[in-house]
Please model this.
Amino acid sequence: MRMRVSSVQFALRDADSFEEWAEQVVHYARNASEYGAKFVLFPEFITTPLLAIGDTSGKGRPIAELPAYTDRYVELFSGLAREYGMYLIAGTHVTSLGDKLRNTAFLFLPDGRYRTQDKIHITPSERDEWKVTGGDGVAVFDTEYGRIAVLTCYDIEFPEIVRMVRAKGADVIFCPSCTDDRHGFYRVRYCCHARAVENQVYIVTTGTVGSLRKVDFMRANYGQAAVIAPNDIPFPPRGILCEGEIGEDMLITADLDLSLLEDVRRAGSVTTWRDRRTDLYPDWN
Model:
């Protein structure tokens, strides 16, 4: 089975209205549709430009006000998914669960319905500055092209959670991220490569670029989209199917051949998924 994926390097700009921000989202969805993409990934914290709307402090409105935009965010992406017949991994949006804030990834289906996956591992800045709390479980999602998972940014730095979704049958992991400097970017990027090798899966990742001048803790962004494969003979030697230009406002597109994953798991140069020593350490079922 083949699936065409696009990954968006979303340039953050202070928004004066929801409509202004939505125009940028629509542009990327239309652009990806022109390339025939069936899956489109947007980055983590894609809705933070909305915190600049109506702000007079120069610091942005409190993060706890983002959940007020959830209905309009869902309406926008749901409509685009239906219009273009795509699966849209719409980055992440801050949601509320009772008195708790969650960093929630949304997967919109071609019929407009959606599924969610809360970020499991919360960074110190998210926890301390924004009071975001981690999710309670991890899921995989069946699509007409194959089984996928969505793990956000810091989540990819934990091998156990990726083992869990691979054990549940995920062949492609979408990793929206948001990093403010090269250190954070390369932590996520190198871990994406490691998880692809360990689990013999594809990983599609992207990050925010640009800057928000009116929103604290989002003033700098260093990101790059990439489509990453296991390092084995059917794939490029560096394990990169394609990647964007760091810091540019753009998207990238690649075709994933899921049958190649089965080939390397069965008879690759190395067979890391098959060769797990579950007699020495737990399996992640």
Q: What stands out?
A: The first helix runs from residue 18 to 34. The chain is about 25% helix and 25% strand.
